[in-house]
Amino acid sequence: MFTGLIEATASIEEIKRDRGGLEISIESDFVSQNVSAGDSVAIDGACLTVKRVEGNRVWFDVSKESTDRTIINYYQKGTEVNCELALRQGGRLGGHIVLGHIDTTGTILYALREREYTRIRVEFERLFSPLVVEKGSIAINGVSLTINEVGVNFVDIMIIPHTFEKTNLRLLKAGSRVNIEFDIIGKYVYRMMSQSSLRDDRLKRLIEEGEV
């Protein structure tokens, strides 16, 4: 589990095709000094398992499922990524609950400076719209952010200077692709409400048919 508070950025050093997936490495003193094989690290919000550590380089295997659902396929040597280590037991949950399981990717429609802040608009498939609410939480490239405005298939977010400077969000521009993880609490509520509605519809139908 993660919190969406980025601890470091790193650069992609190598990408290898491997049995339908990828093997990627990042170069980071912070990450390499704090993980070992088997540990979890969120890379742009995607939970990846450390394969090995060599000096300040950390290697990960990436499954086809992960490449299909994330922006990892867009990575090139030198791409800057956000890094967060898994939350330790007893640690502070300063952002929100982030699982590292990317739901979909989105597209930046614009990134505009408004004095010291930066406003971004992120577009995604309309079917995900029920999972976002104004002033709710969302993780963009693994960063815990507060939603300022909700549209039919987009959200607007104001990025504070600290977050802008310390993450790869400062590199976003119109057309940039990003990883999105929606709030897990909202997903569970939506799932339960959907199932409840289906049960109510089925019960109503049974009553109308005289079977109850």
Compile the SSE list and pairings.
Blueprint: E1 8-18, E2 21-27, H1 29-34, E3 40-43, E4 46-54, E5 57-62, H2 64-69, E6 80-85, E7 104-114, E8 117-123, E9 137-140, E10 143-150, E11 154-159, H3 161-166, E12 177-182, H4 184-208
Antiparallel strand pairs: 1-2, 1-6, 2-5, 3-4, 3-6, 4-5, 7-8, 7-12, 8-11, 9-10, 9-12, 10-11
In short:
Helix content is 20%, strand content 40%.
Describe the structure.
It is globular and about 65 Å long. It has helices at 29-34, 64-69, 161-166, 184-208; strands at 8-18, 21-27, 40-43, 46-54, 57-62, 80-85, 104-114, 117-123, 137-140, 143-150, 154-159, 177-182. Helices cover 20% and strands 40% of the residues. The protein is α+β, with helices and mostly antiparallel strands and 212 residues long. The longest helix has 25 residues, at 184-208. It folds into 2 domains: 8-85, Elongation Factor Tu (Ef-tu), domain 3, CATH 2.40.30; 104-190, Elongation Factor Tu (Ef-tu), domain 3, CATH 2.40.30. The strands form 2 sheets. A 6-stranded antiparallel barrel has the order 1-2-5-4-3-6. A hairpin with a 2-residue loop joins strand 1 (8-18) and strand 2. The termini are far apart.
